[in-house]
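Fig. S4 source data, part A: sequence.
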Amino acid sequence: MNSAPTLNIDLHTHSNRSDGTFTPLELVAHAAAAGVEVLALTDHDTVAGLEEASAGAGIHNIDLVPGVEISAAWRAQPIHILGLWIDPTCAELLAALSAQADRRRVRMLKICARLGKMGLPGGELLAAVEANPGVPTRAHLANAMVAGGHVKDTEAAFRKYLGRGTAANIAAEWPPLETVIAWISAAGGVAVLAHPSRYKLSAGARRRLLADFAAAGGTALEVVTGPNHADHVEALAAFALKHGFSGSVGSDFHAPQTWNPLGRSLKLPDCVTPVWRSYYK
């Protein structure tokens, strides 16, 4: 059973500095309209939107948690790690994120080259991706493919061209889990394993991931995220208790009118210690 939360908290959101549709200022305004009181901006591999989001938070009386979502690898499995309450001016973190952006650009070049060999306008698609203000992502490329009439929707783009195992996909070369957690720790942040139920892992592999995450210094799991079903929340709460993790909640918001609206029904089970306990009583 969940107790009534004292704060409306959303600790996983994206702006157009990565693959969201709102500017950081628009995101904060949208969050305020949704009743969110504590908001983390966690763009993919960048902190470029935090200054603008902070200015918006002051206008809308929202407590902004500086954050980032960093891509990592665990036994060849791509995973995402949230860094919350980070220092966005930390030199070590900024250097690491610059390297992450370079990895993304190189990957995008290779994917678009493959698309070109398949008869699609790879150069045009690359230019469309690079016209976006944020770090390049496959979501940007999927949107460009839809806009160009090459696929009917982004789901089709991933299913036919960009998803794992498809002809144009290039496997990402992300740094190992322990390296990413070290970056977050250097920036004074809390490392949170994002959306653990979404990774295509067996039950045994998931347990090993959580054990390795804890051993590397990870301290929290995202127990409630986006459209998590009740059974996922229950299972993740049990994992958190077993491994001594605190719990986080986040919509993983990218755009309006989607499956993950800001701040809605993000209630952490009472049995799990909130990751924000040290910051908000």
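Fig. S4 source data, part B ends here. The radius of gyration is 18 Å.
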